Amino acid sequence: MNRLAVLIVLASMVFGALVGFAVPTLGGSVYRSGANIVFTAVQIQPKPATASVARHVSQRMPSWAKVAASGAVAGEAHLGAGEFITAHEISGVQSLRIELHSPNRDGLAERTTAAANTVISVVTRMEFNRVSGVVSEPGGEPENMTRAWAIWAAMLGAVLGALVGWLGCSLRRPGRWVARIADGGSRIEGAEAFAASVDHEIRALWSAVRTRRGLLVIGLGFFAIAGYAATGSVGPPFLALLVAGYAAFRDPRWIAGALLILGASVLPPKLELVKVGPVTPTVLEVAVLIGLVVVWRKPGKSIFMWPLILVTAAVAIGCAHGITSGGEFSEVADAMRALLLVPLGFVIVYRAFAGKLPQLVAVVAIGAAVASAVELLAAVMDWQRLLVDERTSVITGDDTSEVSRLSAPILPLWGPLLILLVSGAFPTRPRWRLLLIALPGLAHEALSFNRSTWAPLLGCVVLVAVARFGSRGLVKRLLAAAALGALGLALASGGALGTTGEALAGRVTSVFSGEALVEDSLADRVRENTAALNTLLAHPVAGSGVGVPYGGEIIWYDEVHDRTVVEARPWIHNQYLRMWLWFGVFGLFAVGLLMVRVASAVVHSWRLRAPGTVLVVALGLGLACMAMQSIFQTTLIDRPSLMAIALTLAMLALAVGWRPRFDQVGQTPSSARRIMTR
């Protein structure tokens, strides 16, 4: 990056910081004062109070927190212009924290106490005097919240400004990395050539599995998965890994394949081996270690080298900060081992399949279809060890359906894969083969019941369809899809597809009816975000560090001891808040640079008419899909999601420099004896 680009980035960062700092102050200062309310149950019948009566109060606390912030309380409290009340539960002590925000500091503590008494009055009337309340802590000294929010917004503005400036420079005058993008040719012809190459590889794989060596490979995979399913031991997967590791010294694709099977299939990613001090290594981590040894001397710098180095540095800094801030070492170590799967997994897959991208796509697509088919079969046959992270119920609104909610490590990879399958860079003939690959993934996505993953995936698929078929072709396909979808929903809602179909129909319709917006899960995630933001207001630059609680809580009822239990919540669904908490603003900037490089690669591939442009755009949208899902899912600590990111990044890095090998297209499939050695 030249001096002018550095100046542009710095100027953008300063401008973003100033704008961010100014926005919270535009409306003047806002002050906050808080008071605590304790509620108790009123025993109507003349007998000693029981724990169940107290439990009624605990169960109603979330509702009362909403009442406190409602218009009914605001009207009775006679709030002035610009004043509002927020409330949250103080877990485990049957208390509410009432906070009055006001632009007027004078008399705010007294008005907060009066607002707390108003909340008590409204709640007791709504509960027909079955509860009583008292202000246990009157309004405190007013705090000026504008300054804290201004500093927080300035940090966010600085990061966003620097990233926008970097993106502008990267699009206008990119660095030397752009030389790795293949230029010239036709995008359409390149997509057709790539699809033909993938078709060639699929046929080669089909020929290979019918030979002695191919049957040996299939048997090895079956031994690893079936052996674990039957015994629950890490022995079969570990033995299969050792065989793959031995073969990898002749061809590193073997260890890359083993890495994908262990990290993104149906096996639990945390198959632990022997405990070594405070850390217990997993089979997946042994595969990563073998993979690094195998590919260490292989050449291959990628367009994502420096962004991934910065991400790795952010992880190291965040972990060091977490340990010095009191984070538990085992939690910090586990988070670091999970996060390093992205850069290390990327290096292994990228170097192992350098120059063999069509083969990688063919292997991943067929492997994903087989893995999801096995997962669906495991759900039918009740093979519990292969039902990784399965849940036995689905809550939609006030309805709880006792059905299997499938997850499995292969699921995060289906977002980018389904986008790729409809992009035109994947063979669509014969149709039955495409359906055979796509249908297990579609069924798996549906049975995950994850609405927060459906919407981004559907949006990205529509974008690809618009680019491929045009508006007229898209309308025809959308009409056909809408008709089939309406028919399917009608059949499912009527019970024709069983209880699972009914639950799935209710899940889909809840998005359009607005029922999803009033569920407890959404309110729970709002509480997570609020706790995280309160922590970031106190630590806007460095964050809290990896493994340090951010203020979120888990509340559950202990039936045995008849008491409410409150524990620190180790996860948060909004992964961008987690990045800020763990890695500070530097981590946000590092991850943002990786996103900027992805966007730049897509734009420059389009401009240069790279042969792999369609593939690059599809994979870029796949990463964008996972980025949008990260607002609602715990992807930053989910090893399968991290493996899916590493794999998609590796395919994208290979795609930008891919050139068709027309001499191979249309030939007879390669000799089966050369499987994974060609």
From TrEMBL:
PANTHER family named among the record's database cross-references: LIPOPOLYSACCHARIDE BIOSYNTHESIS PROTEIN PA4999-RELATED, TEICHURONIC ACID BIOSYNTHESIS PROTEIN TUAE
Descriptive protein name: O-antigen ligase
Localization of this protein: Membrane
Top-rank taxon: Bacteria
Membrane topology: Multi-pass membrane protein
Keywords: Ligase, Membrane, Transmembrane, Transmembrane helix
Chief localization: membrane
Sequence ranges assigned to domain O-antigen ligase-related in this UniProt record: 447-590
Listed transmembrane segments: 149-171, 215-248, 276-296, 303-323, 335-353, 360-381, 406-425, 432-448, 454-471, 478-497, 579-596, 608-629, 641-658
InterPro entries reported in the protein's UniProt record: O-antigen_ligase-rel_domated, WaaL-like
Keyword Protein biosynthesis listed: no
Entry annotated with the keyword Repressor: no
GO cellular component: membrane
Pfam families attached to this UniProt entry: Wzy_C
Organism phylogeny: Bacteria, Bacillati, Actinomycetota, Actinomycetes, Pseudonocardiales
Gene Ontology molecular-function annotations: ligase activity
